[in-house]
Amino acid sequence: MFRAWAAFPRVLNGVSLQRRLQATLSHVDSGGQASMVDVSPKPSSTRTATAQAFVELSPETVELVRSAALKKGDIVSVTKIAGIMAAKRTSDVIPLCHSLALDHVDVTVDIQSGGILVECLAKTTGRTGVEMEVR
Question: H or E element: which one contains 50?
Answer without folding.
Answer: strand 45-56
